[in-house]
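General statements about sequence and structure are easier to judge against a single worked case. No coordinates are needed to read the tokens, only the vocabulary itself. The sequence in question and its structure tokens are set out directly beneath this paragraph.
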Amino acid sequence: MNFMRCEILRKGLGILVVMLVMANLTGCASSTRSMAESISPHNEKFKDPACQRSFELATLHDDIKLTRTIATPTILLLSGGSYLLPLIGANMGLDALDHLDASHVSQACGGFATPSKNILEKVLIGAGFGILKK
């Protein structure tokens, strides 16, 4: 009887931990989403079709970021760490694409494009922090 209680408690705690992790993960916004939300609706180009279409990129990058957040540690754990370098490379590429699309959103909506050098710096810094977190 005591064993069953412990097993139920352990399963319940496991489900609670997974739910808390998932709730925290869904709060992470991509750079494209952050840029899209920072565009003022009072901007003259806000209603421009190119600007409005560029906002669709935010959902794509949010989905990619959520998938990466779940898949990267899972693959790393299952591979015993042997996929570390390919995962870092893939994540850096996806980060660069996110920052490039955020720059596109800014430019399509009347803002300035982010210089490639600044995007490279952000990606390298992000990769450095990503390594430290793992």
